[in-house]
Design brief:
Elements lengths: L41 H11 L4 E2 H8 L3 H15 L4 E4 L5 E4 L5
Antiparallel strand pairs: 1-3, 2-3
């Protein structure tokens, strides 16, 4: 006896209608975004640290003050140089550590 070939089961697709959204007659006040002041961002704190230190800021000082890992601090410094053209330079001091500072103005 040959096997009967059955047709695959066809699933019926039922279109669901979603209820229309009701308009809210009470208008809500627009949500105000929290504006972060420039002095509050860590990038601006880093820029201020470098500007205020005449002899430069070490990587250790940056990491302690901003609670960053060393690779994060170096990355931010290079990004600031690239995007904002600050001209931050790093010099090696007598003890062998590097310090980050702005070039001297004439």
């Amino acid at each position: 006896m040959p096997k009967k070939i059955s047709k695959p089961a066809v699933k019926k697709v039922i279109k669901k209608t979603l209820p229309k959204a009701k308009e809210n007659p009470v208008k809500e006040a627009p949500i105000q975004k929290n504006e972060i002041t420039k002095s509050a961002t860590k990038n601006s704190q880093l820029i201020e640290m470098i500007k205020s230190a005449e002899e430069g800021v070490s990587l250790k000082q940056i990491c302690e003050n901003l609670k960053w890992q060393p690779h994060t601090a170096r990355s931010v410094i290079s990004r600031l140089n690239k995007n904002q053209n600050l001209g931050i330079i790093n010099d090696k001091i007598a003890c062998g550590n590097r310090v980050y500072k702005l070039p001297k103005k004439d």
